[in-house]
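I'd like us to work through together how a protein chain folds, taking it slowly. To get us started, please write out a protein record for me. Go ahead whenever you are ready, and we will take it from there:
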Amino acid sequence: MSKTRYHVQFISFAALFLLAFSYPTVAKAQIYEDVPREYWAYDAINRLVSEGYLERGSTHFEPEAFATRQEASEVIATLMDEEQEAPPLAFTDVEEDAPYYEAVKQLVAIGALQNTEHFNGDKFLRRSHVAKMVAIAANMEYETAHALTYKDVTKKTWSYNYVGAVAAADIMNGVTIYEFRPESYVTRAQLAVIMERAIQYKTYVNYNVIYDYLHNAVLPTDNYSREWSVEVARLTNEYREQYGLPPLRYDRLLEQVAVVKAKDMVTTNYFEHKSPIYGQPWDMATIFDYKFVGYGENIARYFHSPQHTVLGWINSPGHRRNILNPHYTHIGVAVDKDKENNYYWVQHFSSK
């Protein structure tokens, strides 16, 4: 079954994946002479300095300069929750009195940095390495299934899991829809924005529960099979590509809403787009504070694999229209199983 509706709401692009939450307002005083208020990363840079994640060493930030390994290590290490017992450093180029010494030790302790002979602290940092360091330091789920749309980051790419983690959380985006450019360097301004998003992620995001504003309760959102869900998304994007459509970005927050719908159908014993409790799919999304412009849903049951489920939707005109809708930008998928071992599949689409 398929269902589509467009619901117009104002959505701030800058809020990205944390649109459901407000972030504390900080003073608007210009901290650096070369970072004016209209600069695209002004808020992120200002916030990190104001809240102590970055030290203001001079009157100039040099936002367009590439970030070095030592600079990145100092700031990324602040994502760690607690100090770890670290082995002796093998680096011959990191002195104990270096300002970044402790940060490097901690990142080595958790495996975010390799403990080799040379640290090369003055060298620039590539996007793939930033993804790894942030994913590990923020304790993200970087070894779980995900669906990447980047053609330059495949399962054979060493940073695949790390890029998948930061991309799914909208901490790091691709340079284009199809390119992550893992070997490109990161500027100081980009690092500040990445850090701001990572801090927000750690502060607010918990993919295991979601708040039900209708009943003022917290609901579990454990997906029966994330691997199957991501495979459904991959097959969906593969089919869209045949029609020249851009891939849909996998959205963990949208997946949570889909999980609620799947569990709702199983526990309440119905198979319809309209929930007897939460109403239409877009009503449910609103109740769980998911922000969108357009929204659609495909549901299925009794199928026993992602391949058969997607094929069933493709062979149905209404479901196929949702899959090939050029306005959709995000996808989230959930699977649940009833007492008779029947699978329920929910595919949610959104436009942002």
